[in-house]
Amino acid sequence: MANHVILVGPLLADTQEDYVASRKQCIGRARRFGQKKDVHVYDFVALKTFDVDVYQQRHGTMLVRRMVNNKEKFVFVKESEATQAEMQESWGSGYKRPSYDEGVNARGEDVEGLDREVAPSSYADFRRRIEGRKENVEDLM
């Protein structure tokens, strides 16, 4: 029986509820009735990518480098628990919390005044944009 679950990148789902339900279903299939082994869940994300932004936003966490069991690892912690030094190391010395509605891109760089796309709030918005439907930018936020 399988006892390892490997999740690669954040799942694109229409709603937070769909996202959580899909993750629980994947993990639940390994933690099924009759499973006698420990179940190991691996959640892979690539550093300094949009995937990390999505994961952090969905889980209300921040990716930081910390010592865990005498080994240096990248771990997700609640934003309120992250130190300013950890935040700065996470995205470099010019750290500013990513906020697509304040004219800041994922790396904290100011993009105010540039002709840019607004990040879609859900996969459904992203699909509509890809399909070429014209919508008001405020509706996508």
Automatic annotation (TrEMBL):
Gene3D superfamilies for the chain: P-loop containing nucleotide triphosphate hydrolases
InterPro entries for the chain: P-loop_NTPase
SUPFAM superfamilies: P-loop containing nucleoside triphosphate hydrolases (SSF52540)
Residues covered by region (Disordered): 87-112
Source superkingdom: Eukaryota
Protein name: Uncharacterized protein
The organism of origin for this protein: Lepraria neglecta
